[in-house]
Design brief:
The chain is mainly α. Helices cover 63% and strands 0% of the residues.
Length: 89
């Protein structure tokens, strides 16, 4: 049996806890009436859309790339490698 997709690493739960907020409080601030999307984001099942990511960064008083630090770092390294490869060729 094949393993399922790997969760998308993030620091959403950590930042929410540091702010002393519950999921339902963050959901209200985002203007949603259900905590399910927030739970799915924190578990790494899906990534919030751009607007919600920006809102979360405002609520948690941090930068968006800090909320998805591992993914940000991975993408940065991939792009650096592509840039280097492009200049070599």
């Amino acid at each position: 049996m094949e393993p399922g997709p790997r969760p998308i690493p993030n620091r959403l739960r950590m930042h929410r806890k540091m702010m002393g907020l519950k999921q339902h409080q963050v959901a209200q601030l985002l203007g949603v009436y259900d905590t399910k999307p927030l739970s799915m984001w924190e578990k790494g099942i899906v990534i919030p859309n751009t607007i919600n990511l920006l809102k979360l960064s405002i609520i948690y008083r941090t930068f968006p790339n800090e909320l998805y630090y591992e993914k940000f770092t991975e993408l940065r390294e991939e792009l650096k490698a592509l840039e280097l490869q492009q200049f070599i060729n």
